[in-house]
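Notes to self after the Tuesday call (sharing in case useful).
The group wants a holo model before anyone commits to mutagenesis around the pocket. I volunteered. Ligand is zinc ion. Logging inputs and output together so the record is complete.
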Amino acid sequence: MTDWNSWLQERDWQPVAPDEFKALPNDEKLRRIRHSSAHVMATALRGVRPEATFAIGPATEHGFFYDVHVDSPLTPEELAAVQEGMKDVSKQRQKFERAVVPHAEAVEFMRDRGERYKLEILEKLADQTVTFYRNGDFVDLCAGPHVPDTSFCQNVKLLAASPAHWRGEQNPSLQRVSGTAWDSRDALKAYLAFVEEAKARDHRVLGQALDLFSFHPWAAGALWHPRGLVVRNELAQFWRGLMPEYGYQEIMNPVLYKPDLFHQSGHWEHYHEDMYIVRDGEGEPDWLLKPMNCPDTMLYYKTRSHSYRDLPLRIAENQVLHRNEVTGALHGLLRTRSFVQDDAHIFITNEQVQDEILQVLELVDRFYSTFGLEYVMKLSTRPEKYMGELETWNAAEAALSAALTAGGREFSVDEGDGAFYGPKIDISIQDSLGRKWQCGTIQLDFQLPQRFDLEYTAQDGTRQRPIVIHRAIFGSMERFIGVIVEHFAGAFPLWLAPVQAVVLPISDEKHLDYAREVTAKLRKAGIRTELQQYESLNYRVRQAEKQKVPYILVVGEREQEQGTAAVRRHKVKEQRVAPVDEVIAELVEKIRTRELDVHQPTMSARFQETAAATTTDNAY
Ligand SMILES: [Zn+2]
Ligand SMILES: [Zn+2]
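Result:
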């Protein structure tokens, strides 16, 4: 029998050279700090739960986790004890050391320790030499790399312990202990402030607090409350308002179709698991709920013949869609089973790709800048398996990239990540916390026109096939609203606010009539206004602030005599007294121009994303 302690001593342990670490780029340093923090956590956890065995402990985007097996879930008190223990380990400056170990000996060692997960990992690594890392008493099977010693892991905060699955196991048998780790105290503080802010802005919480929408386990999508629907309708109106200017026409088709439509489009073949089937009897599906607007828009195209003079033909549709998303993928408004896209399909000739994409990009800019959203674009090109002519692909990709360049836009290229039916541009918006959300997409499609045998008559009289552009800018309306609720922290610009102004009489007895008069005037001008009475003035002001109403108009003796109101903008300290007509004119103008008049406190801790470490690195 092997004495494993002396076996360990006899390994050829190599330290991590501090100079080498110092010379690394910052993101690589951070990645090492994060993964090393997982080892530090494991070291401390041993002190709290000696029975712990370990699965994988990779670095993540902002920290690390370690999936561990313990006899019972960790309590918050135990988690706090682990955090304390990590502090001690860090203070001890334990050196990280690496040793190369023959596979067979590694297996024997882990078997002796009862590390069943490490044994399974080793199975996959059969016939390789593997490496161990150690710090203090803690020894781990690990590919590294690490920081020189544990003192580099002092800006760490444990965030949670939650159930986790081991590789395809049905039931969670592990606890995922996760934390965040940084290279300075300030960076850690900034990140924790960001997490708090993001929590406070969670659209599910704000949706409830501001009475915008809610969720019910029986409903496939959000329940839209009157106030939330105002926001939604304003967005739709904004969208509709821009369509004629850019030459779009809107259609509306049903949500329910015979399966034939999706056989012809090819969606049944590739997509049927995500589609809802509706039966009127037994057996075969009788109807399908459409998961996208594309196939039925093709039916519209075929209702008459087209000539080159009709192209580009820009057809928008805003119908409700249904997709059978798995429960785990659902997340508030960000992913729902029932949703609406600001969808359009544009029919063009091969020669029109560049100009049309340029126009769509201009529209993208109009949309997002209205909300103060920055965005990044990614061009995805021909994958290995593709349909259509290589020549068409090359020309289309060149046109897309020329359009992107012509607009002076920065974009990244993802070679080979396009759909099999055409190249595409994905657009991710960046919110006020610096988080990225994929919303818009512009896709070329060579396939659908072929499947539906679409044609137009060219100038020379020949029959030609058009190309289709699918494009959505908000993406899903639900998702976009979820994103902007968080982006604005619920304090919408005036034009979007469900209630735009409240009028508060100082005294119900003396000033109610005047308050009613002011309210009526504002409403007549199209400003969504509420009159609040009964409670104390202070209370009513606080309520209006909580509801993030953009304008509060207080009226009393003086205002009544002068035909004025004391006006305060949400989040702005100063109050001013102005003639009611003047206030109305000002608000109407802001609404008309959709002014981005938000007064968000700039987040001192606005968190900048650092280079992301993937969750597969480090982990064997
Ligand atoms: Zn490691
Ligand atoms: Zn489409």
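Two things stood out.
Residues 292-294, 345, 470 surround zinc ion (ligand 2) (CB under 6 Å).
The chain has a mean pLDDT of 91.
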